[in-house]
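EI: anyone free to look at a 112-residue chain?
SC: sure, send it
EI:
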Amino acid sequence: MNRDVLLWIGILTGPIIWFINLETGFALAPWLCPWHSKFSPNLVSLIALLIVAGSGMIGWRQWNQIQTRSASEGAPEARPRAMAIAGMVLSGMFFLAIVAQSVPQLLLDGCQ
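SC: here you go
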């Protein structure tokens, strides 16, 4: 895959998956109270966390490749390096945001 595409995936996946997780939680809310089940929102959050962690790994791998390439060729490229770091940081921040959103789902029932 093209390096620029991977860098953009690392940057954009975290916010997009966080938003999808948030909206899915709102969409599931009317069905959670009659079922008294926490399985579906926790499953959605777990899948979201795995995807965001994967996007952080993409940023980390790209950053390592850029560092390795710059060590052998000379000065590192500024834009790809900044994009890789931004992908790692954004993925980490949105990982924490999804974890914070998941805490009430773990502690409270669907009717509360």
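EI: Residues 28 and 40 are 8 Å apart (CA to CA).
SC: 👍
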